[in-house]
Amino acid sequence: MLNSSRQSCVWTFLLCLLGVFAGSTAQAQTESALDRTLSHVDLGVSGVGEFTRDVSGTNYLGVPLTQSAANTFGALVTVRYTKSPWVGVEFNYGYSRYTQHYFSNGSEAYLFGGVQTNNSEYTLGYVAHPRHQFFGMQPFFGGGVGLLAFKPTSGGGQALQRQPAGVYYYNVGVEKQITQHFGVRGLFRQQFYLAPDFYQNYLTIQKYTSTIQPGAGFYLRF
Q1: The domain containing residue 33 runs over which residues?
Q2: Kind plus residue range of the DSSP H or E element containing 193
Q3: Structural domains in the chain (count)
């Protein structure tokens, strides 16, 4: 009877050890898989200049119109997942504020003082990091598509409506990893989109413009 009780205790103890070992192994595997996934992810924050090309056309009244966006400075936040040097994706959120002007024959024909606008970017794209480095810097390039959201401000937006616009972009740049989790990045981007008219037919010229964005910042790798 005593031996049977001892055997039962031994088996219970062994089963408990097995359960603890199995649980620890599963947890270690889960943490290891998570660590491997996060090691491919980085979060970048950059300051970018924004220089937009003027575009000209004729509105529905036959009035020649030139649309000009003031140069400005904005911010760009990028989350990247890089599986391999040639396989990677990125999500971008950008923000800037500037004033949009509408000129005819050299003078501001409509909306005197311009339209002060908040501009937000939401884009998804491909990114590659070639294996070869240049002067100790890792190059990258890519491109993608998404949405720009033009939102006139409450103070200087002339009470106009917000307006979305499709956008596509490309980017090139270099980066340098300083520590295991921190690096610096320089970049050049260009966006292409339909010039906003804020749903006002007298501002509509149906012309595509582009914005170039040189920038620099840092990234954090998990």
Answers
A1: 1-38
A2: strand 182-194
A3: 2
